[in-house]
Amino acid sequence: MKKFIIILFFVFYSSISMAHVAHFDKYSKIEMEILRNGKLIGFNNYFFTKKGDEMIITNEIKFSVKLLGTTIFNVEGYGEEKYIKNQLISFDSKTLQNNKKKFVNLIFDKNKNRFYIKGSSYNGEASMDNIIGNWWNHELLKTDSQISPLSGSVKKQVITFIANEKIELYGKTYDVERYKLISKKKDLPENKKLNFDIWFHKKTGLILKVKYSKMGEWEYRVKNFE
Length: 226
Known about the structure:
1 helix
């Protein structure tokens, strides 16, 4: 069960620090559904608030997973990323996993150009080249390192372009670019390895779908954006 939870949380929560948040000026929200084995189990929604040079992105997530009729865990979380002139200034998140608290408190030191992180699994510094690993941000496909929005840990990754494809979501067809995201380290335990298929729609600048296999088939799908 522990292995299952570790790999899931990368997805569920799943910004070069200088993320091009200006690309998202036209959006007020992105709504994603979470499915397991084709069954809807929850949501992961993002909301965008703009005021002058400041943008705040809030993330709400909630889902419940059952096996053989028994709830194995419930997750409910909230996060907030703050940017000023495209620079990530702070990130805070709180997550309740089966009544166990997870958190991240991150601030940017502009004098040292470093992030300082206090998290439930990591305390220390990180390069400003890191991304907060949330699915609203397509810059995730351009970086080799990210910060876990659940615990604050720093993860190295490799992104590979697979092909141009067409996908259908909720009655609409999209021309997308498909990518593979995997862990950079080959010697990680299987439960800690990243292995995701990601479909990116260049016209909207959105990651429309994320899929992976681990004790079932999991998908994140963008249902609505405004």
